[in-house]
Write a structure and sequence with these properties.
The protein is built from 7 helices and 7 strands; from the N terminus they run αββαβαβαβαβαβα. It is an alpha/beta fold. It has one domain: Glycerol-3-phosphate (1)-acyltransferase (3-Layer(aba) Sandwich).
Length: about 270
């Protein structure tokens, strides 16, 4: 693991006393007309989400616009502040980085750095009774038809380690406005981005005991299966029987794989 230089360290957010504070309201209302100019949010299953307390809400990841759609839904429909785990480079950008920290988003490292600090910050968010919104796949899906692919254990691990509910959800529709891995934006204010929020995932089998990575992986498979089931409802179609795993196709774990050369299977 590469040693981080002093300039590589990312500042973690401070948790405000109130779930929704002035800075959050300011940013949310600034982004509201932008989101409405892009697409129209439709959501079902709001009754499945606790009105108070911490929880992890986890969705499939199709385009670069998903975070805006999910954030809009969590803030304006669930009446909670969404806290995302976002790639660290965003926090190094002038103004944008300060705004993201000000609304308590959590930066994460990529490229071999330890993410102990970001995970501690995410734990602090949940332990303060707040909401973590996350995409368990860790990046945009590489599945050719946009179906959920293999998930990473981080999302479920947060819910289990902090003993909070894990709420699966599916969303579909942003790909019409911005195709997967594309930057060609085609705003369609009338176009619906539809969402379904499922019931809290039953993870009782894994709570109250010391867990191994295999346990977390098993729980993650359950989570992704439910997210996929909800996605099938939205798309009125069946997902492939076999879950897409980028490693089996020689694809990179992060970044725009369509621009990067494929890795050979087994290559580090």
């Amino acid at each position: 693991m590469a040693k981080k230089k002093s300039g590589d360290f990312l500042k973690m957010p401070k948790i405000h006393k109130k779930d929704i504070h002035f800075g959050t309201r300011l940013v949310a209302n600034f982004l509201k007309p932008i989101v409405r100019a892009l697409y129209r949010i439709e959501v079902k299953g709001v009754e499945n989400v606790p009105k108070t307390g911490g929880y992890v809400i986890a969705a499939n990841h199709v385009t670069y616009l998903d975070a805006l759609a999910v954030a809009y839904m969590v803030y304006f429909r669930l009446k909670r502040t969404p806290h995302f785990l976002a790639k660290g480079n965003l926090f190094k950008a002038p103004v944008i980085g300060s705004v993201l920290l000000g609304v308590e988003q959590v930066p994460v490292y990529r490229g071999g750095h330890s993410n102990r600090e970001p995970m501690d910050a995410a734990h602090a968010v949940l332990n303060a009774g707040r909401v973590i919104a996350i995409f368990p796949e860790g990046t945009l899906t590489r599945e050719p038809d946009g179906w959920p692919m293999r998930g990473k254990i981080g999302a479920v691990k947060l819910a289990l380690d902090c003993n909070v509910p894990f709420i699966p959800m599916a969303q579909w529709g942003t790909e019409v406005v911005l195709p997967t891995y594309s930057k060609k934006l085609r705003p369609k204010p009338w176009h619906p981005v539809r969402m379904i929020i499922g019931e809290p995932l039953n993870l009782d089998k894994y709570r109250g005991r010391k867990l191994t990575n295999n346990d977390y992986a098993e729980a993650t498979e359950l989570a992704m299966a439910e997210i996929t089931r909800l996605t099938e409802i939205l798309r009125d179609a069946k997902a492939p029987t076999k879950v897409f795993d980028p490693r089996e196709h020689g694809l990179s774990e992060h970044g725009n794989f369509k621009k990067a050369p494929k890795k050979q299977v087994g290559e580090s």
